[in-house]
Amino acid sequence: MAFGRNLPLPLLAALIAFAALAFAPAIFNDGDTYWHVAAGAAMLDRHAILTSDPFSYTFHGAPWQAHEWLSEILMALAYRAGGWDGVALLSAGALALTAGLLCRHLGRWLDLPAQAIVVVLALACMAGSLLARPHLLALPLLEVWVFGLASARSGHRAPHWSLWPAMTLWANMHGGFAFGFLMLALLGLEAIIEEPDKRKTLVSWSVFGIGAVVAALLTPHFVQGLLFPLHLMSMSALGNVGEWAPTSFAGLEPFEIVVLAGLYFLLSRGVKLPVMRIVMVLVLLHLALSHQRHQMVFAAAVPLILAEPVARAIAMRAQTWHPRLIWTLPALLLGMAIGALRLTVDVPRGGALVTPQAALAHVPDALKTRPVLNDYGFGGYLIFEGVHPFIDSRAELYGDAFLADYAKIISPDPKALAAAIAHYDIAWSIFPPTSPVVAMLDRTPGWRRVYGDDIAVVQIRNH
S-S: 41 plus which of 76, 105, 263, 455, CB 3.0-4.6 Å? Predict the structure, then answer.
């Protein structure tokens, strides 16, 4: 039993998560990774935060704030230090920290087997969002924030001010910090409803909330940075972006399995949850069903929200692991060995569908400086390669009207396509071979196809 209490489960969880993601090519299956690295590199070179668009030609010089500047600089530094292997290790480190913290924090309420099961299910639920992007780097902060709030409720007190620096870091790394305020509001409301001294509870949680707002304002963008997530969420065109699309149940995915497994456990054990905790889970489930990207938030937050009431309902004994040098030092050495192995082993890099490398190589250098009409998913790679795209994934820069016009262009609406070509003097295009635009340009006089493969087709306009 002594061994069970001392089993370094958080370290094991962190090491397994680190090794699994470090060698997973799929973390590069998103074109955003390219422009995030490019943005970080530009800021390192300029010694300044980007405040206008330096990348596209359609909005070049327009106001644009690099709201995820800290994550982007970290990604650029990792790339300069170790290339794409360095970016992979940085991303894997963020997941490892999240898994270790989640396991350790669950130990406040759950026993070892329950901790292991919950962490495995949570990581499985996150699988589709484990991409080399700022949201993954900010994931440990989400976990720390939700645990801090849940721990405060468990102790019948307001959250401690030591959480404020986590909010400041979060606000500089990813727009998901707004979720932290949602959780603060929900758990604060629960505290006011359930605690006997409601006036004192209201005051103490309000003081913490005001401090959290001040902490979130400590970014280069100040109030604009605080309002950015609200602006982004209000955009009507986000539904056309994959990660903002509703969760699909056309096939059996990890998220569905986790939700069904959780329902089975709660119903079969007859677990009775507090009303506010049920409301919180339903709010998070709604977000995850409305937008695929919020599945990761659901997976990180729900275990911490439900751990105490579930443990209390089934009389589970908590088992918290306390760090010991005999376990910690070997784990650190093993983690370093895994990292070194990742740098020396030739691991295939994913992201082929968002990386039209061969196609772009067939575009003459002189033509690369001319206006291009490109696929939304190719925008990040074009930016990374120094080509100014027509569009990329920075929806907040382009706005609803431009995104709606782009949707017409690539549908393709012949009039919208012709108007865009004339207005921007578009000289070439690059799209996946299945894109309707490719077939349309193949039939358009004055356009010819110069290259095509399974990833992309390049077409050139004759002048």
Answer: 76
